[in-house]
Every structure is written in structure tokens, then in C-alpha cells.
């Protein structure tokens, strides 16, 4: 197993740890930051999420730079991303930090695009992610990280940056999904 695939696998392995950090009420204390209370376990989960998100960029970079792209990586990388983001968004609903309807739209888009990719793969067609998809991923990761940190450091200013980023992520999620389907709809007509 090459380095990019090991990084992707490590991201998948970190997901249950991330979930446990946010699901179990660890009594590790909390920080009072302005009007915000940030539990230490949420801070640790946010750091873990940021680290896992960074491995997504690193494994892609190394796979492309050193020509280490494999079928296993093509399967595991998007799966790891969707599992990590979905777990984080669902936990943010439970924590009262994200509206359920936003999360439903984001996760639904991921299922729809994955379905289109599966149809294409069945026809031997590889559908690459576009620039809007990369913007979507970046805005989702930023929104989730800031929300996991209970809007720190923006809570000092009383500015709801995490919530605003979540809505920006929603916008790019929908836009990139529509764009992806428009550009690749021909795949649906090519089925045998």
C-alpha cells in the first residue's frame, strides 16, 4: 500500500475516534472564550478533523505528483471524505450547531454525485472532480472546523463566521452538484 492510500486509510480510522470525542460527554473541562464555552473534547475533535482534512489534500498531492494513483485510492479517498464530512455534519446537528435541513441537502448532493459516478464507472467512464467541487470541499471543511470550535476565534467579535461559512458551503454544494450533473448528464444516456 502506497503513502497516499495509507493517509486515506488513516483518515478512515480517525473517523470513529472523532465520533467518540463528540458523542461521549468527556469531562476534560472547558474554556470560556468571550460568550462561548468550548469543551476541551470539542477542541480535540476539531483538531482531529482539521488533521484528517489536511491528509485529504496531502494524499491527493502525493498521488498526483508521484503518479501513485490507484484504483484502491480512487475508491477509498472519496469514501473517506464523505464519511468524515457526513459524520461531522450529523454530529453538529446533535450539538445544535447546524440546521438539519442544510445537512440533508449537503449529504443528498453527495449521494447523488456518487450515484452518477457509479453509473459512469459501470460504463468505463471516469468523472473527475471540477474546480467547483474543490471549492465545495474547502468551504465545507472550513465551516465544519469553525463550528466544531464553537465559532472560535470569531466568537470574540460576535461574528457568526462558522454559520456563514456553512451557508456558503451549502451554496457551493448545490452549485457544484448542478454543474456536475449538467456536464455529465450524457452518462445517463450512454447506459447499455
Automatic annotation (TrEMBL):
It is a multi-pass membrane protein. Pathway: Lipid metabolism; Phospholipid metabolism; phosphatidylglycerol biosynthesis; phosphatidylglycerol from CDP-diacylglycerol: step 1/2. One of its GO terms (biological process) is phosphatidylglycerol biosynthetic process. It is found in: Cell membrane. One of its GO terms (molecular function) is CDP-diacylglycerol-glycerol-3-phosphate 3-phosphatidyltransferase activity. GO terms for cellular component: plasma membrane. The chain crosses the membrane at residues 12-28, 40-62, 83-105, 164-182. It catalyses: a CDP-1,2-diacyl-sn-glycerol + sn-glycerol 3-phosphate = a 1,2-diacyl-sn-glycero-3-phospho-(1'-sn-glycero-3'-phosphate) + CMP + H(+). It holds the Pfam family CDP-OH_P_transf. PROSITE patterns: CDP_ALCOHOL_P_TRANSF. Keywords: Cell membrane, Lipid biosynthesis, Lipid metabolism, Membrane, Phospholipid biosynthesis, Phospholipid metabolism, Transferase, Transmembrane, Transmembrane helix. Its EC number is 2.7.8.5. NCBIfam families: pgsA. This protein catalyzes the committed step to the synthesis of the acidic phospholipids. Belongs to the CDP-alcohol phosphatidyltransferase class-I family. This is CDP-diacylglycerol--glycerol-3-phosphate 3-phosphatidyltransferase. It comes from Oceanobacillus zhaokaii. The gene is pgsA.
